[in-house]
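Limitations
The structure tokens in this dataset are predictions for the assembled complex, not deposited experimental models. Users should treat interface geometry with appropriate caution, especially where small molecules or nucleic acid strands are included. An illustrative entry is reproduced here so readers can see what is and is not provided.
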Amino acid sequence: MSPLTIVRQFGEVILAIAIAPLLVGWIAQCRAWFQNRSAPPLTQPYRMLRKLFHKDVALATDASPLFRMTPYILFGTMVLAAAIIPSVATDLPFARVADAIALIGLFATARAFQSLAAMDIGTAFGSMGARRDMMIGFLAEPALLMVLFNAFLLSGSTALPNVVEASTAHPFLIDPSLVFAAVAFVMVLLAENARIPIDNPATHLELTMIHEAMVLEYSARHLALVEWSSDLKLFNYACIGFALFLPWGIATHGADGGLALGVAVIALLAKLIVAGAALALIESLSAKLRIFRAPEYLATAFLLAVLGLLVHLLLGA
Amino acid sequence: MHPSHVIAELLKLLAASLLLISFAMLSRRRTQRLITLFAWQGSVLFISTLLVAYSAGLTELYYSAALTLLLKVIALPWILHRLIQRLGAQWDSETLVNIPTTMLVGLGLVIFAFGLAQPISRMATTITRNTIGIALAVIFLAFLMMITRRKAITQVIGFLAMENGLFFAATSATYGMPMVIELGIALDLLVGFFILGIFFFQIREQFDSLDLSNMEALKED
Amino acid sequence: MSPLDWTSRYLLALSRHDLSLLLVFVLGWLVLGVAGLIRPHRVGFVARILFPLGAVAGLGGALLSGIYLITGHAPEILILPLGLPDLPFHVRLDTLSAFFLLLLGIAGAGISTFAAGYFRSGEGTAPGLLCLQYHVFLASMALVILADDAYFFMVVWETMALSSYFLVTSQHRIPEIRHAGFLYLLMAHVGAICILLCFGVLQGGSWQFTFNAMRGATLTPFWASAAFLLALTGFGAKAGLVPLHVWLPEAHPAAPSPVSAMMSGIMLKTAIYGMLRIAFDLLHVRFWWWGVLMLALGLFSALFGAIFAAVQTDMKRLLAYSSIENIGIIFTGMGLAILFQACHLPLFAALALTAALIHSLNHSLFKSLLFLATGSVLHATNQRSLGKLGGLIRRMPWVATLALIGTLAIAGLPPLNGFVSEWLLLQSFLFTPQIPHAFLNMLIPLGAAVLALTAALAAYVMVKFYGVIFLGQHREPSLAHAHDADWLERIGLAWLAFGCIAIGVMPQIALRAAGAVTGTLLGQTVNLSSPYWSIAPISPGQASYSGLILLAGIVGVVGFTFALVRVVAHGRMRRTVPWDCGYPWQTSRMQDTAEGFGQPIRHMFGPFFRMERDLPSPSDIAPRYRVHIEDRLWRTIYLPIARGVQRLADAVGVLQGGRLAIYLLYSFLTLIALLVFVL
Amino acid sequence: MVILVALGLPLLGALLLALFGARHYAAELNAAMSFATLVAVIFLVLRVLRHGSILALHEQFFVDSFNVFLVALTAFVGFTTSLFSRPYMRIEEQRGRLSPQRLRLYHSMYQLFMAAMFLALLTNNMGLLWVAMEAATLSTVLLVSLYRTRASLEAAWKYFILCGVGIAQALFGTILLYFAAEHILGRQGMTALLWTHLNAVKGQLEPRVLGLAFVFLLVGYGTKVGLAPLHNWLPDAHAEGPTPVSAVLSGLLLNVALYAVIRCKVLVEGSIGSYLPGHMLMGFGLLSAVLGAFFLWRQRDIKRLFGYSSIEHMGIITFAFGIGGPIANFAALLHMTVHSLTKSSIFFTAGHASQTAHTQQMDGIRGLVGISPTIGWGLMLGSLAILGMPPFGVFASEFLILTTAMREHPWTTPFLLIALGVAFAAIFRKVQPMVFGESDAPPLPHSPALVPVFIHLAMVLMLGVYIPFALAEWYRAAARLIGG
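Predicted assembly:
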């Protein structure tokens, strides 16, 4: 493990932490344009974080240590996830630590802690949000796993770097199964990141909210960390998507000099811009579903993923 | 004509009459009559035993005959008689199955018994060779009687009749069992009979009748 | 070279008489049990002396079998001067039994330590008697694992059932508990009959009932399958495989918590052991459809258990159903192993079997941990219903913290042990497309999805479990003076929690232990060469996972962030009432209840349940909402059987009509019939 | 002559108790006589162990490895039962169910019954065997009707008639046997009924006759064994007689009757040379086991319940003897032993249980462990033992029987298993609520003598995990003797 790889590793993590809020800001801006509202500035998320970090914490009387620990754990898991996902380069020391399945596990851990924290205060909304979030979670995970299975079958490995390597080896060949998988993945991404049509990040309408209901009791630095880690989560999901479906430009093993890295970063930013716009478009075009439509929605995602799998097995890639 | 043949013929005759008596018992209703018939059966048994003893020249069979006379011709009928006097149980005892059917079944049983006994009588060497079939028939008929009767006493009489059949089988087919056994059997019979006697009174005082239909309480419900 | 290798070489000298030493430990358990009868009512003596000694014996057994696994030499066989004249008791120690003895020892030690603090007088059976039953239970489980002939196996197997039955019914004054005990023993007995039949088939014409003879026997495919199915039924009944699971959710809650822990954590594993013993050791052939059947049953049980656990409102019932789920996962692994083995893919078979074994070990750790935690909660609050608990994390921090570890572990979250086994299992699912059967290679990958769904559901269940018991507000005022567990209980819990973490961050240890087993059963192990802080079962290039580094990473980032936030954020912290969207009148009744948590599941998986709900009418003064969930299988399978027997019994009863003449007729007809027969 | 002593002591006891049976020390006397008998029998056993089988008194009596262990068992259980009956009968007397005169009858009949069984076991003469069986019937009839209640009279009457008729069939069978034998052995020296001689020449006996004879003997003695469908007397007699009598009926008399059947089977099989008798036994056994199991399901009376369980187990034993061969016979003998030990101990506890609850109806008996732990645990363990739960010895024999059945006649296994399963459910669901649960009944006036119970159960437990070498050899020899 050369110092260069370590530098690369940390660079990637820092990059992720740095531009995750930007992505969210960008999506918000796009949404504003699509709904021709006047858009907030791109840096809005950063400002909010800064503000939150300077506020006093108002902590519920009988909040347990778990409640106070959780924001840090969330942030930690998400940063770790960012360190694992090959967003810029594949040759990452951390990528060997956990493969894609472990990645899902990592996200699950985060979710569990967030839900527990939400239940800790013992308010009606908190526990409701926790319940709904866990529900979305156990519906989304099988779909996500099936999506990953497609990629695994193509590359014969569950380690994301290997997936990228495999698909960049013959770049212009897109396996038909991946098309299904991609659609399914996008649906899962929306669900997992509390976005329309499952949840609306912008609302505080009590009975419909999920994510917001869970973070209701957080304030100041805790809230900042929670928000930041959810931004990171979105960023990570986007990067997973890129790694699975549009790996072009990612600096592969061996070919990862300074130039390649530069290219990779550019490519990443480009992808993020496009993806963010697309996401905003989808969100503006679709309406929020009732909570009990969520199973059908995610079942569809699951079905698509399975179809992809079967197509793959049928065409015997 | 050689005496042994005569005796053989006589024995056959007795055997036949034994069977006849069993049928008669099957058909009789009055308990009193049954007892008389039972006594008759006993006496026939006694005579046949005497004949066999004489023809085979076995002293112990004489004892056996004497035993039969004492027990089955004199003692038991007399006790039974006294019993029904004391218990006032001499009235008609209606059967579970009507008489003609019983007779028909009995007939079938007799045929079956004979068929069953054939191989045995073929290998028998005694002059009383084919009487064992009749003995078997008597046993079956007694059994049938026990099944079809309702009163405790009639059942007992059936039981005793069965014993008679057994004795007849023992003497006619095998010239009687060894004396020890004979005595043992007789003793058991006597004791058993006395126990029955005690029972009758107890049953009577508990159920104030000897009708078996009262004794159907113990069952799976 | 890794510390493991070093220790192994160092300990090689010690490990020559493992078997006899193990038997000494087992005997020690029995002696302890009998010793309990000396002063049956002296809690101090029984609890503070005998149970800790039992824990020590458990540790010793675990140590021995661990050494045996590391050094892993030839099986040791012993013939005891007991048993039938023609069939003395055989005992045998090989890697498979050593692995399960390790499991038994580790979990048993923890549970015994906890029990030392838990058992108090005045609860049903006298402590001394309880001690006897408890240790007989332990000993019989150990002997089940060691037995090497059918007769001895059956004897200890039923002894195990019997002793556990007495433990379950230790509070026999409660009718439900009696009913649960009856159902349990009945199912156990039926299962035992199946196992006996299975052995009858396995001997394969040699009519020798030692396992060695069975290993030698060669069966026709038909009889081999028959034996397998009988074993699946018999051991499935003990393991709580759906649809033979009905006793489990009744019996486990009925028992005192340490007993529930032992039944769920260890006893179910003896069934797994038996299944492995027969399927991989005694049977010489394996057919692919066995694997498919087992896989299907396993997946169904897993899903079924998870779904039912999600709707439970009694904390111990919830855990019991979660046991069904985990058993399902283990059976899934075994099924995959059989399937791969039958398709001549030994490496993948080894992978699946490793997953199953490690999951057994994990489950024995976290499930006992959680059951024991419920025990402490029960003692502290006398409440079992989730609807009456809550907020205990502030009253019983120790139990809450340790239970949190168990919760995260059983939810299959990294970097704890539950995740490791599920990861391995998913890995092995990844290779199912290579099975040379059309359809199978397309259908079975979907099993991975079911598994993922189950795992996620388990997380849901466990968040419910932990959140409702330990978090939020007290749902009952009485909870305000709940007390934390005493020190012995804490040690027991901590020991098990430590196990969860250890296997989670150093899965290589468990992998090597399981590797020793697969090595003997399949002649093939997964890749064990990777360093001890990470595992790469197939190849480092294919997939690798390292709990240790993951944990280090999280801790590092969290610590760093914490420090950083300390520096940048100057905001002070003040305590206020919860905000809750500014809604002022908060009461603890407004929290989500266990029923509330079950609601989405009931909504989605309706067909699984038989539901009775009474909803309050709008004009109710004191509105009450009640929902009663019942298992459809009970009515569709079990009740009809009971009714059938009843009918037959009634029919037979007619024979005893009470009329003497009829009786005479019977014997007369019998006589005639026989005479005709000989004629 | 130790045999004569063993036979004479109970007779003497019967005589003494007929005189002093009404005194307050009668129970002790009874126990003492039984103990003396036990001692005599132990001497007998030792002799047999040392010198092998004995023939005595013009070969009228003989002891071989088959009957010696039954004699020992009978003497032992007879003794323990007399111990148990001491407090039991005291309580019955206090509750005014029995007068001193009745107790006298009871005690002397008890001894007489023992004597009859010893005679049946020890005699070499098939005729004497019959006489002894009849005597046993008569004495037990009086014991069953001891309470003189309607129910007990009815039970005794049915018992008497059914067994009397059965015994009559057996007599006819014996006559046929004699008839066949005297052609070979002749009338001289009265050897034609001696089992040893018959056994020696069994090859030459006329098969047809012996076939017939066996049918009659089987139906006759089988009635006393309680084989379905000849069993109807058994539950009534067990339920209505005093509990010690139920214990000895179940534990001993059935064994003795079966012993007689087996003796005959040996002869007949030797003569016919076919498996016909074996198959008959198997048929009866299987039928009894299955029917018995299903009967168990609907019982309300505790002693009736265990009476049916005896039918089931006698069925299993008969079945095993029917299979024949060293293993099955071994198993059958083992099962005889453990069954009589277990079943008698169960009746001991059941008796005290129904005394504590003042009823034999199982719905009325609750929470025994609460009232008297010994009774409760005794009943629980005994029932579990009789249900074939390891590590109790019943499981050992059932294991052997089952495996042999699988081997010889696989089609029978499902029936046996169904019988075992149903019996388990039926008995256990009744016993559990009796033993466990709440109760407010007061404890018994006299402390129950439950030492015998735990001695029996301990022996059964031992036989489950360890069969002493001597005993095993014994069984083996007997099994060889029975052959088949």
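Some entries come with short summary sentences. For this one: Chains B and A do not touch (no CB pair under 8 Å).
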